[in-house]
Amino acid sequence: MSIQVFILSKLMEGNNYPYKVKKELSEFIPLDKLTRLTESKLYYHFESLTKHGYIEVVEVIKEEHRPDKQVFAITDKGRKEFPQKIYKLFEKGDSIRDFLPGLENIKYVDRSKIVEILERKIDGIHADWEKTKDFGKRVKGDHNNETIIHFVRDYFSTRTEHTLHWMEELVNLIKEGKI
């Protein structure tokens, strides 16, 4: 999903071809390293977007002793779908890292809708944490289990607090118009 958002965002700026998009993607965030994005995966996303009618080939550049370059453009259907893909990215994401391509393209969506999505996520994290934070009291075991229980509880507690802090910070920055 995030790769497709990135591809569409590049095509919103102008026509482009897959290799150049991959290079730009790697400059933005080394997603090729973080997600093991290969050229075949990138071309798969271009094919998928083309199949759905969101992008189309507008030019083929032929160079001697090199493979042909297909230059793509976003279609009207793609322009209409682009904000929906950004909303889905926020709805499905679980961390700030998941939201980065959406944040980079927040100008194409209704910020208040993004805030609503994030506030629902924050509420969900709070609710899940309330259900699970006392799990160590419900588990009985020997001394070794107790150490593991404390370790796991502390890990998830810290991770949850960290996630909540940054999600709430993100909501505030969007509300203030700083993002």
UniProtKB/TrEMBL annotation:
What the entry lists under Gene3D superfamilies is as follows: Winged helix-like DNA-binding domain superfamily/Winged helix DNA-binding domain
InterPro entries, alphabetically? Metal_resp_DNA-bind_regulator, Tscrpt_reg_PadR_N, WH-like_DNA-bd_sf, WH_DNA-bd_sf
| Transcription regulator PadR N-terminal domain boundaries | 7-82
Instruction: Name it.
Output: PadR family transcriptional regulator
